[in-house]
Write the C-alpha coordinates for this entry.
Amino acid sequence: MIKRLLIGLLGLVVLGVIGIFVLAWRSALPPIEPPAASSFPDALIAQGEVLAGAGNCASCHTQPGGQAYAGGVGLESGFGTIFSTNITPDADTGIGRWSEQAFARALHEGVARDGSQLFPAFPFDHFTKVRDEDIKALYAFFMTRQPLKAEAKQNALPFPLNVRALQAGWKLLFLHKGVYQPDPDKSEQWNRGAYLVEGLAHCAACHTPRNRLGAERTDAEYAGAMIESWLAPALTAANPAPMPWTQDELFAYLRTGATALHGSAAGAMSDVVHAGLAKVPDADVRAIAVYFADIDGSASRAASADAALAKAMAFEHRDMHDDIAAGANLYVAACASCHYNSGASPLPARPGLALNSALTGPDPSNLIHVILDGIGRDDGMPVLFMPGFAGALSDADIATLAAWLRRTRTDQPEWKDLQATVGRIRSHQG
Ligand code: HEC
Ligand code: HEC
Ligand code: HEC
Protein backbone atom coordinates (compact mmCIF):
# COMPACT_ATOMS: atom_id res chain seq x y z
CA MET A 1 0.00 0.00 0.00
CA ILE A 2 2.74 2.40 1.07
CA LYS A 3 4.76 1.35 -1.94
CA ARG A 4 1.83 2.09 -4.25
CA LEU A 5 1.42 5.49 -2.60
CA LEU A 6 5.10 6.27 -3.05
CA ILE A 7 5.03 5.28 -6.68
CA GLY A 8 1.96 7.47 -7.11
CA LEU A 9 3.71 10.43 -5.46
CA LEU A 10 6.81 9.90 -7.54
CA GLY A 11 4.60 9.87 -10.63
CA LEU A 12 3.12 13.22 -9.60
CA VAL A 13 6.55 14.74 -9.06
CA VAL A 14 7.73 13.48 -12.45
CA LEU A 15 4.58 14.88 -14.06
CA GLY A 16 5.15 18.21 -12.30
CA VAL A 17 8.72 18.41 -13.52
CA ILE A 18 7.67 17.51 -17.06
CA GLY A 19 4.91 20.11 -16.79
CA ILE A 20 7.38 22.85 -15.88
CA PHE A 21 9.64 21.94 -18.76
CA VAL A 22 6.73 21.86 -21.21
CA LEU A 23 5.67 25.26 -19.88
CA ALA A 24 9.24 26.53 -20.13
CA TRP A 25 9.88 25.29 -23.63
CA ARG A 26 10.37 28.07 -26.15
CA SER A 27 11.74 27.55 -29.63
CA ALA A 28 15.11 28.99 -30.55
CA LEU A 29 14.72 31.78 -33.08
CA PRO A 30 17.00 31.46 -36.11
CA PRO A 31 20.32 33.35 -35.95
CA ILE A 32 20.79 36.13 -38.48
CA GLU A 33 23.80 37.71 -40.14
CA PRO A 34 24.58 40.81 -38.01
CA PRO A 35 22.81 43.66 -39.86
CA ALA A 36 24.91 46.53 -41.24
CA ALA A 37 24.75 49.68 -39.12
CA SER A 38 23.81 51.60 -42.25
CA SER A 39 20.58 49.59 -42.51
CA PHE A 40 19.06 51.58 -39.61
CA PRO A 41 17.79 55.16 -40.14
CA ASP A 42 19.60 57.78 -38.00
CA ALA A 43 16.36 59.13 -36.57
CA LEU A 44 15.39 55.67 -35.30
CA ILE A 45 18.82 55.18 -33.68
CA ALA A 46 18.53 58.59 -31.99
CA GLN A 47 15.09 57.68 -30.66
CA GLY A 48 16.51 54.39 -29.38
CA GLU A 49 19.23 56.25 -27.48
CA VAL A 50 16.61 58.30 -25.64
CA LEU A 51 14.65 55.16 -24.78
CA ALA A 52 17.80 53.36 -23.60
CA GLY A 53 18.24 56.34 -21.25
CA ALA A 54 14.68 56.03 -19.98
CA GLY A 55 15.27 52.29 -19.43
CA ASN A 56 18.63 52.95 -17.80
CA CYS A 57 20.03 49.95 -19.68
CA ALA A 58 23.57 51.21 -19.06
CA SER A 59 23.40 51.05 -15.27
CA CYS A 60 22.94 47.26 -15.42
CA HIS A 61 24.81 46.43 -18.63
CA THR A 62 27.91 48.67 -18.29
CA GLN A 63 30.40 48.10 -15.47
CA PRO A 64 31.62 51.24 -13.70
CA GLY A 65 34.44 52.53 -15.88
CA GLY A 66 33.90 49.56 -18.25
CA GLN A 67 33.01 49.35 -21.92
CA ALA A 68 29.52 50.41 -22.93
CA TYR A 69 26.92 47.62 -22.79
CA ALA A 70 29.46 44.77 -22.54
CA GLY A 71 27.62 43.38 -19.47
CA GLY A 72 29.26 41.63 -16.52
CA VAL A 73 27.61 43.78 -13.82
CA GLY A 74 26.83 41.60 -10.78
CA LEU A 75 23.31 42.17 -9.45
CA GLU A 76 22.38 41.07 -5.93
CA SER A 77 19.03 39.34 -6.24
CA GLY A 78 18.57 38.31 -2.63
CA PHE A 79 19.02 34.70 -3.81
CA GLY A 80 22.52 35.11 -5.21
CA THR A 81 24.42 37.14 -7.80
CA ILE A 82 23.19 37.34 -11.38
CA PHE A 83 25.43 38.88 -14.03
CA SER A 84 24.12 41.03 -16.84
CA THR A 85 25.07 39.99 -20.35
CA ASN A 86 26.80 41.59 -23.32
CA ILE A 87 24.15 43.41 -25.37
CA THR A 88 26.51 44.87 -27.96
CA PRO A 89 26.06 43.46 -31.50
CA ASP A 90 29.10 41.14 -31.28
CA ALA A 91 28.17 38.03 -33.29
CA ASP A 92 29.64 35.48 -30.85
CA THR A 93 29.39 36.92 -27.35
CA GLY A 94 26.73 39.63 -27.80
CA ILE A 95 23.36 39.90 -29.53
CA GLY A 96 24.72 40.38 -33.09
CA ARG A 97 22.84 37.32 -34.33
CA TRP A 98 19.55 38.32 -32.72
CA SER A 99 16.71 39.30 -35.05
CA GLU A 100 14.39 42.11 -34.02
CA GLN A 101 11.85 39.41 -33.21
CA ALA A 102 14.30 37.73 -30.80
CA PHE A 103 15.13 41.07 -29.17
CA ALA A 104 11.43 41.89 -28.80
CA ARG A 105 10.71 38.46 -27.29
CA ALA A 106 13.51 38.98 -24.72
CA LEU A 107 12.06 42.32 -23.59
CA HIS A 108 8.42 41.24 -23.71
CA GLU A 109 8.70 37.69 -22.34
CA GLY A 110 12.16 37.28 -20.81
CA VAL A 111 13.22 34.55 -23.26
CA ALA A 112 16.67 34.56 -24.92
CA ARG A 113 17.19 33.94 -28.64
CA ASP A 114 18.14 30.31 -28.01
CA GLY A 115 14.83 29.78 -26.23
CA SER A 116 16.19 29.71 -22.68
CA GLN A 117 14.38 31.51 -19.87
CA LEU A 118 15.94 34.73 -18.54
CA PHE A 119 16.01 35.68 -14.86
CA PRO A 120 13.77 38.50 -13.68
CA ALA A 121 16.85 40.45 -12.47
CA PHE A 122 16.38 41.68 -16.06
CA PRO A 123 13.20 43.72 -15.53
CA PHE A 124 11.19 42.21 -18.38
CA ASP A 125 8.17 42.26 -16.06
CA HIS A 126 8.24 46.01 -16.85
CA PHE A 127 9.66 45.92 -20.38
CA THR A 128 6.72 43.74 -21.43
CA LYS A 129 4.72 47.00 -21.43
CA VAL A 130 6.92 48.68 -24.06
CA ARG A 131 5.25 49.26 -27.44
CA ASP A 132 6.59 47.65 -30.62
CA GLU A 133 7.67 50.93 -32.20
CA ASP A 134 9.84 51.69 -29.16
CA ILE A 135 11.32 48.16 -29.19
CA LYS A 136 12.19 48.77 -32.85
CA ALA A 137 14.06 51.97 -31.94
CA LEU A 138 15.91 50.27 -29.07
CA TYR A 139 16.92 47.46 -31.43
CA ALA A 140 18.26 50.01 -33.94
CA PHE A 141 20.26 51.70 -31.17
CA PHE A 142 21.81 48.51 -29.78
CA MET A 143 22.58 46.94 -33.18
CA THR A 144 24.56 50.06 -34.10
CA ARG A 145 26.77 50.11 -30.97
CA GLN A 146 30.42 49.13 -31.07
CA PRO A 147 30.51 45.27 -31.05
CA LEU A 148 32.60 44.09 -28.08
CA LYS A 149 33.90 40.64 -27.18
CA ALA A 150 32.83 39.80 -23.62
CA GLU A 151 31.80 36.32 -22.50
CA ALA A 152 28.97 36.07 -19.97
CA LYS A 153 30.11 35.55 -16.39
CA GLN A 154 28.95 32.55 -14.39
CA ASN A 155 26.01 33.39 -12.09
CA ALA A 156 26.42 32.58 -8.40
CA LEU A 157 23.02 31.02 -7.76
CA PRO A 158 22.39 27.91 -5.65
CA PHE A 159 20.60 24.86 -7.11
CA PRO A 160 17.69 24.72 -7.97
CA LEU A 161 17.41 28.49 -8.39
CA ASN A 162 19.97 28.34 -11.19
CA VAL A 163 17.67 26.16 -13.33
CA ARG A 164 16.47 28.52 -16.03
CA ALA A 165 13.44 26.41 -16.91
CA LEU A 166 12.03 26.99 -13.41
CA GLN A 167 11.66 30.67 -14.26
CA ALA A 168 8.65 29.58 -16.29
CA GLY A 169 6.83 28.91 -13.02
CA TRP A 170 7.76 32.37 -11.71
CA LYS A 171 6.46 33.94 -14.89
CA LEU A 172 3.21 32.03 -14.69
CA LEU A 173 2.65 33.59 -11.27
CA PHE A 174 4.10 37.08 -11.69
CA LEU A 175 4.59 38.11 -15.33
CA HIS A 176 1.62 39.98 -16.72
CA LYS A 177 2.43 40.08 -20.39
CA GLY A 178 1.15 42.83 -22.65
CA VAL A 179 1.91 46.42 -23.63
CA TYR A 180 0.73 49.35 -21.50
CA GLN A 181 -3.00 50.07 -21.81
CA PRO A 182 -3.85 53.77 -21.37
CA ASP A 183 -6.31 54.75 -18.64
CA PRO A 184 -9.10 56.62 -20.48
CA ASP A 185 -10.02 58.57 -17.31
CA LYS A 186 -6.59 60.23 -17.11
CA SER A 187 -4.92 62.91 -19.21
CA GLU A 188 -2.64 62.16 -22.12
CA GLN A 189 0.31 63.51 -20.11
CA TRP A 190 -0.48 61.24 -17.16
CA ASN A 191 -0.72 58.25 -19.48
CA ARG A 192 2.61 59.16 -21.09
CA GLY A 193 4.17 59.26 -17.62
CA ALA A 194 2.56 55.98 -16.63
CA TYR A 195 3.73 54.31 -19.85
CA LEU A 196 7.34 55.34 -19.17
CA VAL A 197 7.33 54.66 -15.44
CA GLU A 198 5.55 51.28 -15.49
CA GLY A 199 7.44 50.16 -18.59
CA LEU A 200 10.94 51.21 -19.59
CA ALA A 201 11.85 53.31 -16.54
CA HIS A 202 10.83 50.46 -14.15
CA CYS A 203 10.81 52.77 -11.09
CA ALA A 204 8.94 50.08 -9.14
CA ALA A 205 11.86 47.66 -9.51
CA CYS A 206 13.57 49.59 -6.70
CA HIS A 207 10.73 51.47 -4.99
CA THR A 208 8.29 48.56 -4.53
CA PRO A 209 8.99 45.88 -1.89
CA ARG A 210 9.26 42.30 -3.13
CA ASN A 211 7.68 39.08 -1.88
CA ARG A 212 9.62 35.95 -0.91
CA LEU A 213 9.86 34.84 -4.51
CA GLY A 214 11.42 38.14 -5.54
CA ALA A 215 8.38 39.57 -7.31
CA GLU A 216 7.09 43.09 -6.69
CA ARG A 217 4.19 43.11 -4.23
CA THR A 218 1.09 44.30 -6.05
CA ASP A 219 -0.48 45.25 -2.70
CA ALA A 220 2.37 47.65 -1.89
CA GLU A 221 3.19 49.50 -5.09
CA TYR A 222 5.85 52.19 -4.55
CA ALA A 223 5.67 51.64 -0.78
CA GLY A 224 9.48 51.91 -0.50
CA ALA A 225 12.06 49.11 -0.43
CA MET A 226 15.66 48.30 0.48
CA ILE A 227 17.85 47.90 -2.57
CA GLU A 228 21.54 46.93 -2.22
CA SER A 229 21.65 48.44 1.32
CA TRP A 230 19.97 51.73 0.30
CA LEU A 231 16.39 52.69 1.06
CA ALA A 232 14.47 53.62 -2.09
CA PRO A 233 11.82 55.68 -0.21
CA ALA A 234 8.08 55.35 -0.65
CA LEU A 235 6.77 57.37 -3.59
CA THR A 236 3.21 57.31 -2.25
CA ALA A 237 1.55 59.48 0.37
CA ALA A 238 3.74 57.53 2.84
CA ASN A 239 6.89 59.27 1.54
CA PRO A 240 8.90 60.32 4.61
CA ALA A 241 10.15 63.73 3.38
CA PRO A 242 8.58 66.61 5.33
CA MET A 243 7.81 68.59 2.15
CA PRO A 244 5.34 67.12 -0.34
CA TRP A 245 6.74 65.89 -3.64
CA THR A 246 4.75 68.21 -5.88
CA GLN A 247 4.91 67.98 -9.65
CA ASP A 248 7.49 70.81 -9.77
CA GLU A 249 9.65 69.28 -7.04
CA LEU A 250 9.63 65.90 -8.78
CA PHE A 251 10.46 67.50 -12.11
CA ALA A 252 13.38 69.49 -10.66
CA TYR A 253 14.78 66.48 -8.77
CA LEU A 254 14.49 64.09 -11.74
CA ARG A 255 15.88 66.72 -14.15
CA THR A 256 18.78 68.11 -12.09
CA GLY A 257 19.40 65.56 -9.32
CA ALA A 258 18.67 67.88 -6.38
CA THR A 259 16.27 70.43 -4.96
CA ALA A 260 16.56 72.75 -1.95
CA LEU A 261 13.43 71.28 -0.38
CA HIS A 262 14.36 67.61 -0.75
CA GLY A 263 18.10 67.19 -1.16
CA SER A 264 20.07 65.12 -3.64
CA ALA A 265 19.84 61.92 -5.65
CA ALA A 266 22.60 59.66 -4.34
CA GLY A 267 23.30 55.92 -4.70
CA ALA A 268 21.46 54.11 -7.49
CA MET A 269 19.13 57.08 -7.87
CA SER A 270 22.04 59.20 -9.07
CA ASP A 271 22.46 56.87 -12.07
CA VAL A 272 18.74 56.96 -12.77
CA VAL A 273 18.92 60.75 -12.99
CA HIS A 274 22.37 61.48 -14.43
CA ALA A 275 23.00 58.43 -16.63
CA GLY A 276 19.42 57.58 -17.59
CA LEU A 277 16.85 60.36 -17.48
CA ALA A 278 19.48 62.90 -18.63
CA LYS A 279 18.87 61.55 -22.16
CA VAL A 280 15.09 61.99 -21.88
CA PRO A 281 13.41 65.23 -23.09
CA ASP A 282 11.80 67.68 -20.62
CA ALA A 283 8.29 66.76 -21.76
CA ASP A 284 8.77 63.12 -20.75
CA VAL A 285 10.38 63.98 -17.39
CA ARG A 286 7.43 66.31 -16.81
CA ALA A 287 5.01 63.46 -17.64
CA ILE A 288 6.75 61.22 -15.09
CA ALA A 289 6.41 64.00 -12.50
CA VAL A 290 2.70 64.36 -13.30
CA TYR A 291 2.19 60.64 -12.75
CA PHE A 292 3.93 60.48 -9.36
CA ALA A 293 2.45 63.77 -8.13
CA ASP A 294 -0.92 62.05 -8.61
CA ILE A 295 0.15 58.82 -6.88
CA ASP A 296 1.62 60.61 -3.85
CA GLY A 297 -1.39 62.89 -3.39
CA SER A 298 0.88 65.92 -2.90
CA ALA A 299 -1.93 68.31 -3.85
CA SER A 300 -3.79 67.37 -0.67
CA ARG A 301 -0.73 68.29 1.42
CA ALA A 302 -0.17 71.69 -0.21
CA ALA A 303 -2.09 73.53 2.50
CA SER A 304 0.21 72.28 5.26
CA ALA A 305 3.48 72.74 3.32
CA ASP A 306 4.35 76.16 4.79
CA ALA A 307 3.93 74.86 8.32
CA ALA A 308 6.05 71.79 7.53
CA LEU A 309 8.81 73.99 6.15
CA ALA A 310 8.77 76.33 9.16
CA LYS A 311 8.95 73.33 11.50
CA ALA A 312 11.92 71.81 9.64
CA MET A 313 13.78 75.14 9.57
CA ALA A 314 13.16 75.52 13.30
CA PHE A 315 14.86 72.14 13.84
CA GLU A 316 17.81 73.43 11.80
CA HIS A 317 18.09 76.51 13.99
CA ARG A 318 18.52 74.70 17.28
CA ASP A 319 21.38 76.31 19.09
CA MET A 320 23.99 73.56 18.88
CA HIS A 321 26.19 75.03 21.58
CA ASP A 322 23.51 74.56 24.21
CA ASP A 323 23.49 70.84 23.55
CA ILE A 324 26.27 69.03 25.32
CA ALA A 325 25.59 65.70 23.65
CA ALA A 326 28.53 63.99 21.91
CA GLY A 327 26.49 64.06 18.68
CA ALA A 328 26.34 67.86 18.81
CA ASN A 329 30.12 68.06 19.03
CA LEU A 330 30.52 65.77 16.06
CA TYR A 331 27.98 67.79 14.07
CA VAL A 332 29.72 71.08 14.84
CA ALA A 333 33.12 69.65 13.97
CA ALA A 334 32.23 67.68 10.85
CA CYS A 335 29.00 68.94 9.30
CA ALA A 336 27.92 72.42 10.43
CA SER A 337 30.44 74.34 8.31
CA CYS A 338 28.53 73.27 5.21
CA HIS A 339 25.05 72.44 6.49
CA TYR A 340 24.21 75.06 9.12
CA ASN A 341 21.83 77.66 7.74
CA SER A 342 20.67 80.42 10.08
CA GLY A 343 18.26 81.89 7.52
CA ALA A 344 14.56 81.17 7.20
CA SER A 345 14.70 79.63 3.71
CA PRO A 346 16.47 76.47 2.63
CA LEU A 347 19.51 76.95 0.38
CA PRO A 348 20.43 74.49 -2.38
CA ALA A 349 24.15 74.60 -1.56
CA ARG A 350 23.59 74.06 2.19
CA PRO A 351 21.16 71.15 2.20
CA GLY A 352 18.79 71.33 5.14
CA LEU A 353 19.15 68.04 6.96
CA ALA A 354 15.74 68.31 8.63
CA LEU A 355 14.15 68.36 5.17
CA ASN A 356 15.88 65.23 3.97
CA SER A 357 14.32 61.77 3.82
CA ALA A 358 17.75 60.38 4.71
CA LEU A 359 16.96 61.70 8.23
CA THR A 360 13.20 61.41 8.37
CA GLY A 361 12.90 57.98 6.68
CA PRO A 362 12.21 54.69 8.46
CA ASP A 363 15.75 53.38 7.92
CA PRO A 364 19.15 55.04 8.55
CA SER A 365 21.00 53.40 5.64
CA ASN A 366 20.96 56.36 3.24
CA LEU A 367 22.28 58.74 5.91
CA ILE A 368 25.04 56.27 6.80
CA HIS A 369 26.01 55.80 3.15
CA VAL A 370 26.21 59.55 2.63
CA ILE A 371 28.30 60.13 5.78
CA LEU A 372 30.71 57.30 4.88
CA ASP A 373 31.11 58.07 1.18
CA GLY A 374 30.00 61.67 0.75
CA ILE A 375 28.35 62.73 -2.47
CA GLY A 376 30.51 62.86 -5.59
CA ARG A 377 30.66 65.67 -8.12
CA ASP A 378 28.69 63.51 -10.56
CA ASP A 379 25.91 62.79 -8.07
CA GLY A 380 23.23 65.09 -6.70
CA MET A 381 23.93 68.65 -7.79
CA PRO A 382 26.52 68.95 -10.52
CA VAL A 383 29.86 70.38 -9.31
CA LEU A 384 28.92 70.58 -5.62
CA PHE A 385 30.15 67.71 -3.54
CA MET A 386 30.36 66.47 0.01
CA PRO A 387 33.46 64.67 1.33
CA GLY A 388 33.15 61.18 2.78
CA PHE A 389 33.96 60.56 6.45
CA ALA A 390 34.76 56.84 6.29
CA GLY A 391 38.36 57.53 7.33
CA ALA A 392 37.65 60.26 9.87
CA LEU A 393 34.73 58.85 11.87
CA SER A 394 34.45 55.46 13.59
CA ASP A 395 31.30 53.32 13.48
CA ALA A 396 30.50 54.51 17.01
CA ASP A 397 30.95 58.18 16.01
CA ILE A 398 28.66 57.82 13.02
CA ALA A 399 26.05 56.00 15.12
CA THR A 400 26.19 58.76 17.75
CA LEU A 401 25.93 61.51 15.14
CA ALA A 402 23.06 59.79 13.28
CA ALA A 403 21.14 59.25 16.52
CA TRP A 404 21.60 62.90 17.52
CA LEU A 405 20.52 64.21 14.10
CA ARG A 406 17.45 61.98 14.20
CA ARG A 407 16.55 63.20 17.70
CA THR A 408 17.14 66.90 17.10
CA ARG A 409 16.01 67.31 13.49
CA THR A 410 12.94 65.10 13.28
CA ASP A 411 10.07 63.99 15.49
CA GLN A 412 10.43 60.38 14.35
CA PRO A 413 11.18 57.41 16.65
CA GLU A 414 14.85 56.61 17.23
CA TRP A 415 16.66 54.17 14.93
CA LYS A 416 17.67 50.82 16.46
CA ASP A 417 21.02 49.01 16.12
CA LEU A 418 22.72 51.98 14.53
CA GLN A 419 26.29 50.99 15.18
CA ALA A 420 25.81 47.49 13.76
CA THR A 421 24.18 48.97 10.67
CA VAL A 422 27.12 51.33 10.16
CA GLY A 423 29.50 48.38 10.44
CA ARG A 424 27.49 46.32 7.97
CA ILE A 425 27.31 49.10 5.39
CA ARG A 426 30.98 49.97 5.80
CA SER A 427 32.09 46.36 5.26
CA HIS A 428 29.86 45.92 2.21
CA GLN A 429 31.57 48.84 0.55
CA GLY A 430 34.86 47.01 0.53
C1 HEC B 1 18.05 46.05 -13.40
C2 HEC B 1 19.09 45.62 -14.29
C3 HEC B 1 18.85 45.62 -15.79
C4 HEC B 1 18.36 46.64 -16.56
C5 HEC B 1 17.89 48.02 -16.12
C6 HEC B 1 18.41 46.15 -17.92
N1 HEC B 1 18.88 44.88 -17.96
FE1 HEC B 1 19.10 43.72 -19.62
N2 HEC B 1 19.63 42.14 -18.43
C7 HEC B 1 19.90 42.22 -17.10
C8 HEC B 1 20.39 40.92 -16.63
C9 HEC B 1 20.80 40.57 -15.21
C10 HEC B 1 20.37 40.06 -17.77
C11 HEC B 1 20.77 38.59 -17.81
C12 HEC B 1 19.59 37.75 -17.39
C13 HEC B 1 19.88 36.28 -17.42
O1 HEC B 1 21.03 35.88 -17.60
O2 HEC B 1 18.93 35.50 -17.28
C14 HEC B 1 19.89 40.87 -18.88
C15 HEC B 1 19.70 40.39 -20.16
C16 HEC B 1 19.30 41.15 -21.24
C17 HEC B 1 19.11 40.64 -22.57
C18 HEC B 1 19.29 39.17 -23.00
C19 HEC B 1 20.70 39.01 -23.49
C20 HEC B 1 21.19 37.60 -23.61
O3 HEC B 1 22.30 37.43 -24.13
O4 HEC B 1 20.49 36.66 -23.17
C21 HEC B 1 18.77 41.70 -23.38
C22 HEC B 1 18.48 41.67 -24.88
C23 HEC B 1 18.74 42.87 -22.52
N3 HEC B 1 19.07 42.51 -21.24
C24 HEC B 1 18.46 44.14 -22.97
C25 HEC B 1 18.26 45.24 -22.11
C26 HEC B 1 17.82 46.53 -22.57
C27 HEC B 1 17.56 46.91 -24.03
C28 HEC B 1 17.69 47.31 -21.45
C29 HEC B 1 17.19 48.74 -21.35
C30 HEC B 1 15.91 49.01 -21.98
C31 HEC B 1 18.06 46.49 -20.32
N4 HEC B 1 18.42 45.25 -20.76
C32 HEC B 1 18.03 46.92 -19.00
C33 HEC B 1 19.73 43.31 -16.28
C34 HEC B 1 19.17 44.52 -16.68
C1 HEC C 1 18.02 51.16 -9.29
C2 HEC C 1 17.11 51.53 -8.24
C3 HEC C 1 16.19 52.72 -8.47
C4 HEC C 1 15.40 52.98 -9.56
C5 HEC C 1 15.26 52.19 -10.84
C6 HEC C 1 14.68 54.20 -9.24
N1 HEC C 1 15.03 54.66 -8.00
FE1 HEC C 1 14.37 56.37 -7.14
N2 HEC C 1 15.61 56.05 -5.55
C7 HEC C 1 16.44 54.96 -5.38
C8 HEC C 1 17.23 55.14 -4.17
C9 HEC C 1 18.26 54.17 -3.62
C10 HEC C 1 16.84 56.39 -3.62
C11 HEC C 1 17.42 57.10 -2.38
C12 HEC C 1 18.49 58.05 -2.88
C13 HEC C 1 18.96 59.11 -1.91
O1 HEC C 1 18.57 59.10 -0.76
O2 HEC C 1 19.72 60.00 -2.34
C14 HEC C 1 15.82 56.92 -4.51
C15 HEC C 1 15.19 58.15 -4.31
C16 HEC C 1 14.16 58.64 -5.11
C17 HEC C 1 13.42 59.84 -4.82
C18 HEC C 1 13.63 60.73 -3.60
C19 HEC C 1 12.74 60.25 -2.49
C20 HEC C 1 12.96 60.97 -1.19
O3 HEC C 1 12.01 61.06 -0.41
O4 HEC C 1 14.11 61.41 -0.93
C21 HEC C 1 12.50 60.00 -5.83
C22 HEC C 1 11.49 61.12 -5.97
C23 HEC C 1 12.68 58.90 -6.75
N3 HEC C 1 13.69 58.08 -6.27
C24 HEC C 1 11.94 58.71 -7.90
C25 HEC C 1 12.20 57.69 -8.82
C26 HEC C 1 11.55 57.61 -10.11
C27 HEC C 1 10.50 58.56 -10.64
C28 HEC C 1 12.08 56.52 -10.74
C29 HEC C 1 11.81 56.01 -12.15
C30 HEC C 1 12.03 56.99 -13.20
C31 HEC C 1 13.05 55.92 -9.83
N4 HEC C 1 13.08 56.67 -8.67
C32 HEC C 1 13.79 54.80 -10.11
C33 HEC C 1 16.54 53.87 -6.23
C34 HEC C 1 15.95 53.78 -7.49
C1 HEC D 1 32.35 70.39 2.61
C2 HEC D 1 30.95 70.60 2.83
C3 HEC D 1 30.15 69.48 3.53
C4 HEC D 1 30.40 68.85 4.73
C5 HEC D 1 31.58 69.05 5.64
C6 HEC D 1 29.29 67.97 4.96
N1 HEC D 1 28.39 68.04 3.92
FE1 HEC D 1 26.69 66.97 3.71
N2 HEC D 1 26.40 67.80 1.90
C7 HEC D 1 27.17 68.80 1.34
C8 HEC D 1 26.67 69.12 0.01
C9 HEC D 1 27.23 70.17 -0.93
C10 HEC D 1 25.57 68.27 -0.21
C11 HEC D 1 24.75 68.17 -1.48
C12 HEC D 1 25.63 67.42 -2.46
C13 HEC D 1 25.12 67.35 -3.87
O1 HEC D 1 23.91 67.41 -4.08
O2 HEC D 1 25.94 67.19 -4.77
C14 HEC D 1 25.40 67.47 1.00
C15 HEC D 1 24.40 66.54 1.22
C16 HEC D 1 24.15 65.90 2.42
C17 HEC D 1 23.00 65.07 2.68
C18 HEC D 1 21.84 64.84 1.74
C19 HEC D 1 21.89 63.52 1.05
C20 HEC D 1 20.68 63.28 0.20
O3 HEC D 1 20.46 62.10 -0.15
O4 HEC D 1 19.94 64.22 -0.14
C21 HEC D 1 23.12 64.62 3.96
C22 HEC D 1 22.15 63.70 4.71
C23 HEC D 1 24.35 65.16 4.49
N3 HEC D 1 24.95 65.93 3.51
C24 HEC D 1 24.83 64.94 5.77
C25 HEC D 1 26.04 65.41 6.24
C26 HEC D 1 26.56 65.08 7.54
C27 HEC D 1 25.86 64.24 8.58
C28 HEC D 1 27.78 65.70 7.63
C29 HEC D 1 28.77 65.63 8.76
C30 HEC D 1 29.30 64.30 9.03
C31 HEC D 1 28.01 66.41 6.37
N4 HEC D 1 26.93 66.21 5.57
C32 HEC D 1 29.14 67.14 6.07
C33 HEC D 1 28.27 69.38 1.88
C34 HEC D 1 28.88 68.97 3.04
Remarks:
- The longest strand covers residues 74-76.
- Residues 20-174 form one domain.
- DSSP finds 19 helices and six strands in the chain.
- Residues 2-24 form the longest helix (23 residues).
